[in-house]
Amino acid sequence: MVTSAERLIPRPDMSERHTILIDASRERVWDTLTGLTGADIPLAKPLFAARALASRLIHGRTPQSHPDHTPQPHPSFTPQPHPGGTSQSHPGHTPRPHPGGTSRSHPGFTPLVVDPGRELVLGLIGQWWRLGKSQDVPVDSLTTFETFDRPGFAKGTFAFSLEEERGRIRLTTETRVATTSPDALRAFRPYWIVIRPGSGLIRHLILRTVRSRAQHP
């Protein structure tokens, strides 16, 4: 089955995928996932602190959001119907709290697709390899993300999907990044090589945290 992240970025320049089996109900896994905050994953903090320090030393200010950061789902909203059976955020809709959802959103990330209990896709656009000098692009809708093609940038998705497997739930997270021009790809590639080990570790931590909390509430 083609996921929403695959539809949004069908040919990524860089990607990584991690998965875990969880012995809990779909609803329990979803509520646990969408209820996570950065404080729930303390081992990830040193990685973010090191990056922020490097940015301050190089550019004099801390970086903006980027795909190796741990995104927090939007404090939720009522999803609108989306072709293909998923849902998308409605930029003009008033958010409503989601059961178990986090109380704050993560700066820089926009919920692009939300299918409760099945799929969550967050997206952002920027120049993360420039660290503190990144010119991030506000993403106020799914259409903005899909149609953006200005050279010199990258588009990234951070997605979670839930699938039933022999009475358990397989939770998968996938990061996909596509650059908008050859020069952006050349600039992004070494940055990806540097951050990928930490990025993969953070994703493993997220998956293990969700499994632990979902199986042992």
Structure description:
The chain has one domain: START domain (Alpha-D-Glucose-1,6-Bisphosphate, Chain A, domain 4), CATH 3.30.530. The chain is built from five helices and seven strands; from the N terminus they run αβααββββαββα. It has helices at 4-8, 26-34, 45-59, 142-147, 182-215; strands at 14-22, 80-81, 87-88, 110-115, 119-126, 154-165, 168-179. α2 (26-34) packs across α5 (182-215). The protein is globular and about 45 Å long. The two termini are 31 Å apart. Residues 53-63 and 69-107 have low confidence and may be disordered.
Assign the CATH topology: Alpha-D-Glucose-1,6-Bisphosphate, Chain A, domain 4
Beta percentage is 15-25%
Amount of helix? 25-40%
Give the overall average pLDDT.
77
| Structural Rg | 17 Å
Q: What spatial form do the alpha-carbon principal axes imply?
A: globular
Q: Which class best fits the helix and strand makeup?
A: alpha+beta
Which stretches are low in confidence, meaning pLDDT under 50 for 5 or more residues running? 53-63, 69-107
